[in-house]
Design brief:
The structure holds 2 protein chains of 2 kinds. Chain A is mostly helical. Chain A has 11 helices and 2 strands. In chain A, helix 4 packs antiparallel against helix 5. Classes of the chains: A mainly alpha, B alpha/beta.
Chain lengths: 270, 275
């Protein structure tokens, strides 16, 4: 901002005095808000319970370990369900997202009104957590894997379509022009101009979403979605902490495994 | 050729939605087998003009008659048929990076190939054969299965040339083919294009901002300024006054003078340069 001439020197400051004062003031206000908020939280907290925490943790750990090894035989089938939920949920979402993304992208949509409608669908899907979707869908189709798959699919298609349509909008237009100029039909332009450019992004995003969905489908069972979350919920309800730990160990291994699979696939896409 | 002119553009106007008027009534005839260079400053409307010819850009008004057909009035299907006979070469090559060299060349035949056949890369044997011959001609036979993004700029432009020629076009549109290339490669590419144009007996419109290259390779030069044709003549008629007419006031001899001076110094010539 201002260059100030002082004697023979030209001085430069990043901000002038007025702006600087305003900035200090806003920092002060932020600090006061944090302080007030902290005081409120403190008043709402029963500190006796917090001070009790170390003892509670020791107690918990003693109940959790050793994990219930026999329970694993019940976990494996549930894990299979969970993996299936994530794969089918993601698969359905991908199949629906591709046309949605094409209709949502400025450069490929058929009409601005269609684009508006699709964008609304995408926002609706994204703004509701998959747990909430599961709660709603369980009410409609009853508890079980199907409800989970639906919840995962509905939640994922928003995120997938959004990332895909952004990829379509950022596409390199020159090859598209070149293919069009050869007299190719719209379908051919799509398969020769768009598909090769978009394929890596589409596959990468889908795999990444699947990795997220493995995590989501492990807990979605808690609200009646089936799979490993169902076991976790029932173990917690029965206060069987050694079984809870067994489930958590399996979830941890599964998540790490899915992250590895996803990273490996995405690394191969260049 | 029955018609006198192969391409006949009259009163071509293009107004972009932003209100910018890129072409303000262009009139231009291109004869069969003619090598025409279109020069002019950036923003003069060169790109817009050649993109109107195959309607990558929709003209606002005017006529573009190619071999007796007004391109501007064609429907989707007829336009596609017309585009098959017009090849195009681009500044940034416009290859599909993730496809192989062969796929890029064959994409020039999409207009002649059925949708499903093209998706599964089932091109007729004679098309594949001519693709191989073209790749041999442009010196890329060893790169048939390389991905387009693995090639250098000059090689990529050669793929672009092969893609345009496999269309068996009557007319070639070339948009700044050398602007992204080094001076040597630029000359080689220009020479290759001109050789092939003569070999295949095509008419060609080349957008080029390098006046020297234009003079070297074209038979006719058209100067565009502010969306209007301001010069139309032979390459050797392009002198300083013509350049000023096209590009605006500039000391066109400055570079030449210094160049001449250095040469004289090297040869220990006694004659003084008049500055």
């Amino acid at each position: 901002m201002p260059i100030i001439s002082q004697d023979d020197l030209n001085l430069w400051m990043r901000r002038d005095r007025k702006v600087q004062r305003k900035r200090y003031l806003s920092w002060l206000i932020a600090l006061i808000i944090i302080g007030v908020g902290f005081a409120y939280i403190s008043r709402q907290t029963m500190w006796e319970f917090v001070s009790d925490a170390p003892r509670q943790i020791r107690d918990f750990l003693s109940r959790m370990f050793p994990p219930d090894v026999k329970y694993f035989s019940r976990i494996w089938p549930a894990l299979w369900d969970t993996i299936n939920i994530s794969i089918f949920g993601t698969g359905i979402a991908v199949v629906i997202s591709i046309p949605l993304a094409i209709l949502a992208a400025k450069n490929t949509t058929v009409h601005p009104i269609v684009r508006g409608v699709v964008l609304a669908i995408i926002v609706a899907s994204r703004s509701v957590n998959s747990m909430i979707w599961a709660l709603i869908i369980v009410q409609i189709v009853g508890p079980g894997m199907f409800a989970s798959i639906m919840a995962i699919a509905i939640r994922s298609l928003g995120m997938l379509s959004k990332l895909m349509y952004e990829a379509i909008e950022e596409i390199n237009q020159e090859p598209i022009e070149a293919i069009t100029a050869t007299g190719a039909s719209r379908v051919q332009v799509f398969f020769y101009g768009y598909v090769p450019q978009l394929l890596p992004t589409f596959i990468g995003t889908s795999v990444y979403r699947w990795e997220n969905n493995i995590r989501e489908s492990t807990i979605i069972g808690i609200v009646g979605g089936g799979g490993i979350g169902l076991l976790l919920n029932s173990a917690i309800n029965r206060l069987a902490w050694d079984q809870v730990v067994s489930v958590l160990i399996v979830i941890l291994i599964t998540v790490v495994g899915s992250e590895w699979v996803s990273a490996t696939i995405r690394k191969k896409l260049v | 050729m029955v018609e006198k002119h192969m391409v006949s553009i009259s009163n071509l106007v293009k107004k972009y939605p932003s209100g910018q008027e890129a072409l303000k009534g262009v009139n231009l005839e291109v004869n069969a087998n003619e090598i025409l260079a279109l020069i002019g400053p950036s923003g003069a409307g060169k790109s817009t003009l050649i993109r109107c010819v195959n309607r990558l850009v929709e003209p606002t008004s005017g006529k573009i008659i190619i071999n007796g057909i007004d391109v501007c009035t064609l429907g989707y299907k007829a336009l596609r048929m017309q585009r098959r006979k017009i090849g195009m070469i681009f500044q940034e090559y416009a290859l599909v990076d993730r496809l192989t060299v062969m796929e890029n060349v064959l994409s020039g035949q999409l207009g002649y190939t059925g949708t499903f056949k093209s998706i599964f890369r089932k091109f007729p044997p004679d098309v594949v054969d001519s693709a191989i011959k073209l790749l041999e001609r442009v010196g890329l036979l060893d790169y048939v299965d390389s991905r387009a993004d693995q090639l250098s700029g000059g090689q990529r432009q050669r793929v672009g040339i092969a893609r345009a020629l496999i269309q068996r076009p009557d007319l070639l549109l070339v948009d700044e083919p050398t602007a992204s290339l080094d001076p040597k490669t630029a000359r080689q590419i220009m020479r290759l294009i001109v050789e092939l144009v003569i070999e295949y007996k095509l008419a060609v419109i080349i957008n080029i901002h390098d006046v020297q290259l234009a003079q070297m390779f074209a038979q006719r030069i058209v100067g565009l300024r502010d969306g209007i044709v301001v010069y139309d003549g032979t390459p050797d008629q392009v002198d300083n006054s013509v350049l000023t007419e096209i590009y605006g006031e500039e000391d066109w001899d400055q570079g030449k003078k210094r160049h001449a001076q250095e040469e004289d110094d090297d040869e220990d010539d006694d004659i003084d340069q008049v500055e």
